[in-house]
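TA notes, week 10

Several of you asked for a full example with nothing omitted. So below is the full record: structure tokens for the whole chain, then the designed sequence directly under it. When grading your own attempts, check the secondary structure regions first.
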């Protein structure tokens, strides 16, 4: 017995010899008689291993021979581990069966890591729990104590392709005694031949190196995996310069290829036939797994990966298909497959092509920086695309063409150098719950008789519009959140006819919905709000149907018809716009019915510049200016509307306006129920004009009118007022029970400013006073002339609308009838004109 050293020198000894210790209980390593050998590992200085806990005591096995007892119980751990480091894996497992102590020591992770790395080269254990499933783990985070041994057991039956090693292995049988059944090959072709001859079960490890121009045609369920230290796929490179690098044929339905770089690198980059040569070619009736591979092709035609034919159904996952001079992934001719968690980038053509009834499932792929489109489905291509990140491609992120019908769900499609999604030439597709944003052109383009479903997406912050439908496009645009785009949220043009419903279209830097150049469509139950320009534009021969929408809080007009814009606007709520709720101009002739139009800062409806329109059964109320403006040669029909509680007049017609006003209820407006001015000539028939806070009807400034069968009652200033020189045609009107506040004030000698202040314009005789230097913008009521300007040089002007400047305190002499003066500006003879939209300036 060698006495243990003490003192400082003992700590520097390479081996601290100890008697047997009583170790914490561990799971014993089972003997694997089927395990085949591995090359002898180099030794490690076990003197630096952390010491094990030790309790002195005598062995309970008194019958053991002294040598055996010493070996099993007394020999220090470090010496036993040193001896075990010279054993191969089979002998190490046999030693573990001797006793519990040996079982613990033989299961040491460092021993197994050395054996493992010598055979497989992996610097992290490669776990293989099930067929077709491989993954590397961090040993420190693994739940079991010895992942190296566990992985060794899972991978042990494989054959190895290790150029130059086979001759060395087979010419040194004594050195590798116990590994006689382990197979080594110099080439992949030889290993595949061994599978065909049933020399082993089909698990092939391809070790570090570059393997060039081997003919790899797989028609059996082999498993081929790269074996190298570090990042495995970078160090195991298989390339071909003449033919497809890997070809999977019928019979390879359960094959696996993983953890390697696969390249097709022809000398002539462009002479190959379109479908002839690829990195990976997967044909009919096979479903291999391609896992953690780097795939590159320098050929300028064809594709890096081609999956074609009925029954072609691979699983391609965790692969990098990038920097190819052609298409990245091509799925065609009824092929299917599952493609998950791949990196597809910087390919010269599309990242993914799906064609001719190809129908893959593509999930969680990162498709980006392509030199063409990101994903291209065409010629009846289909597919289910879920949770992919598609961005920064040179053309559209996703293109659908020629009867293709993909389903795209919960993807992010963004920062495209052109558009996000492009559907054309009778393309279809379902785009559901995606985020489409920050694309240079429209987020979604639909054209040339295409009919996709765009549903539940967020389409925002585009450098142009949100959804752009043109050239006979159709589509269902439903339940999307469209906002913050530089141009219109939705644009419909050139005979396109989509269904647009249940969307939120808001906070755009331009308008909400823009329908032009004979655009059509059904636009219903959307919320359109807070856009910089009009909420909805309809122009140039367009005829959409807008139904049950909420169009509100815009910074200009709610709905704007111009330049022969037509269509139907019905059952909408249009409110709280900075300009008017609806504007109609330049030959436009929409049908506007059953809408609620309120809260406009510039009136309810403005019809001007030869606008038309049939405006029926609407409720128009609480607008800051007139409920309806008709001006400049416009000629609409207003029928059965309720125009009430306006903060100005009910209907204002001026500057040559016309129109038929029939069977409307006009009531409780702050100014005249109907004001007709400046050469206008409307027809008013069977209207009820009542309960106004000013006059019922006022006609001024050389206007005329036809009044038939109207009822005018209970208006504060009076029923009907005609200015000097006005002639009207009247028949069967009933003017009754008005409050006649103007006549009563005149008869009482009051200043008319008492009843009007500067917010109303009562119609009566008005004068000027030359003594007080009044201008042609001033007016003085008859009672102030008699009282305040008695003896002055006065002049009768006419019978017309005005408020009294004397009573308002704007003249040099104080009014003796009105009381305290105000500081108002000069009189205006008409209500303030509405603001016309300047939307066209922003086109």
């Amino acid at each position: 017995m060698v006495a243990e050293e003490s003192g400082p020198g003992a700590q520097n000894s390479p081996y601290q010899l100890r008697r047997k210790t009583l170790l914490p209980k561990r799971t014993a390593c089972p003997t694997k008689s089927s395990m085949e050998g591995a090359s002898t590992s180099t030794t490690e200085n076990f003197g630096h291993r952390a010491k094990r806990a030790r309790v002195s005591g005598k062995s309970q096995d008194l019958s053991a021979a002294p040598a055996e007892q010493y070996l099993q119980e007394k020999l220090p751990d470090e010496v036993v581990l040193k001896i075990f480091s010279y054993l191969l894996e089979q002998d190490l497992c046999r030693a573990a069966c001797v006793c519990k102590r040996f079982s613990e020591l033989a299961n040491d992770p460092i021993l197994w890591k050395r054996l493992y790395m010598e055979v497989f080269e992996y610097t992290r254990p490669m776990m293989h729990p099930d067929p077709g499933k491989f993954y590397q783990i961090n040993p420190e985070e693994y739940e079991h104590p010895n992942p190296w041994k566990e992985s060794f057991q899972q991978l042990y039956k494989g054959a190895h392709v290790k150029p130059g090693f086979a001759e060395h292995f087979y010419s040194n049988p004594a050195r590798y005694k116990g590994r006689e059944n382990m197979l080594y090959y110099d080439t992949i072709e030889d290993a595949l031949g061994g599978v065909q001859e049933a020399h082993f079960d089909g698990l092939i490890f391809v070790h570090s190196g570059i393997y060039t121009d081997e003919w790899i045609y797989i028609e059996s369920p082999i498993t081929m995996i790269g074996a190298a230290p570090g990042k495995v796929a970078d160090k195991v490179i298989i390339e071909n310069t003449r033919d497809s690098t890997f070809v999977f044929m019928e019979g390879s339905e359960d094959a696996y290829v993983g953890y390697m770089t696969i390249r097709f690198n022809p000398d002539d980059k462009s002479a190959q036939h379109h479908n002839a040569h690829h990195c990976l070619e997967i044909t009919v009736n096979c479903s291999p797994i391609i896992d953690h591979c780097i795939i590159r092709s320098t050929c300028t035609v064809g594709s890096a990966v081609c999956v074609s034919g009925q029954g072609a159904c691979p699983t391609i996952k965790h692969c990098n298909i990038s920097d190819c001079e052609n298409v990245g992934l091509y799925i065609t001719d009824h092929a299917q497959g599952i493609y998950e968690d791949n990196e597809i980038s910087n390919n010269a053509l599309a990242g993914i092509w799906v064609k001719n009834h190809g129908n893959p499932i593509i999930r969680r792929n990162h498709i980006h920086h392509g030199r063409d489109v990101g994903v291209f489905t065409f010629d009846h291509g289909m597919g289910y695309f879920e949770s992919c990140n598609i961005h920064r491609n040179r053309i559209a992120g996703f293109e659908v063409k020629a009867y293709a019908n993909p389903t795209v769900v919960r993807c992010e499609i963004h920062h495209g150098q052109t558009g996000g999604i492009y559907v054309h030439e009778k393309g279809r597709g379902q785009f559901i719950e995606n985020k489409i944003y920050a694309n240079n052109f429209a987020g979604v383009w639909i054209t040339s008789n295409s009919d996709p479903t765009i549903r539940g997406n967020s389409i925002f912050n585009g450098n142009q519009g949100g959804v752009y439908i043109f050239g006979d496009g159709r589509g269902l645009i439903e339940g999307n959140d469209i906002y913050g785009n530089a141009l219109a949220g939705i644009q419909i043009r050139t005979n396109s006819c989509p269904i647009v419903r249940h969307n939120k279209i808001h906070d755009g830097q331009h308008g909400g919905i823009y329908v032009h150049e004979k655009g059509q469509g059904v636009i219903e139950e959307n919320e359109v709000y807070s856009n910089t320009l009009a909420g909805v534009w309809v122009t140039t021969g367009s005829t959409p149907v807008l139904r049950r929408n909420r169009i509100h809080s815009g910074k200009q007009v709610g709905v704007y018809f111009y330049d022969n814009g037509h269509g139907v606007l019905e059952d909408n709520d249009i409110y709280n716009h900075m300009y008017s709720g609806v504007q109609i101009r330049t030959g436009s002739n929409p049908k506007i019915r059953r809408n609620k139009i309120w809260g406009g800062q510039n009136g309810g409806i403005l019809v001007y510049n030869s606008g038309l329109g049939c405006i029926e059964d609407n409720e128009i109320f609480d607008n800051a200016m007139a409920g309806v403006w008709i001006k400049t040669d416009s000629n609409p029909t207003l029928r059965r509307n309720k125009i009430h509680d306006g903060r100005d007049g009910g209907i204002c017609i001026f500057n040559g306006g016309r129109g038929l006003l029939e069977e409307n209820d006009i009531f409780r407006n702050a100014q005249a129920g109907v004001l007709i001015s400046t050469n206008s000539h409307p027809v008013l028939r069977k209207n009820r004009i009542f309960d106004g806070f000013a006059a019922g009807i006022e006609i001024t400034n050389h206007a005329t009118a036809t009044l038939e069968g109207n009822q005018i009652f209970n208006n504060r200033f009076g029923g009907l007022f005609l200015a000097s020189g006005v002639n009207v045609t009247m028949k069967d009107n009933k003017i009754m029970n008005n409050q006649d506040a103007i006549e009563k004030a005149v008869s009482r000698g009051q200043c008319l400013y008492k009843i009007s202040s500067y917010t109303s314009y009562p119609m009566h005789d008005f004068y000027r006073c030359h003594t007080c230097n009044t201008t042609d913008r001033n007016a003085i009521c008859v009672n102030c002339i008699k009282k305040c300007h008695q003896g002055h040089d006065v002049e009768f002007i006419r019978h017309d609308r005005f408020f009294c400047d004397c009573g308002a305190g704007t003249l040099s002499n104080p009014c003796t009838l009105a009381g305290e003066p105000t500081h108002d500006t000069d009189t205006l003879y008409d209500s303030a004109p509405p603001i016309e939209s300047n939307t066209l300036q922003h086109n």
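Residues 1-62, 820-832, 838-843 have pLDDT under 50 and may be disordered. Use that as a sanity check on your answer.
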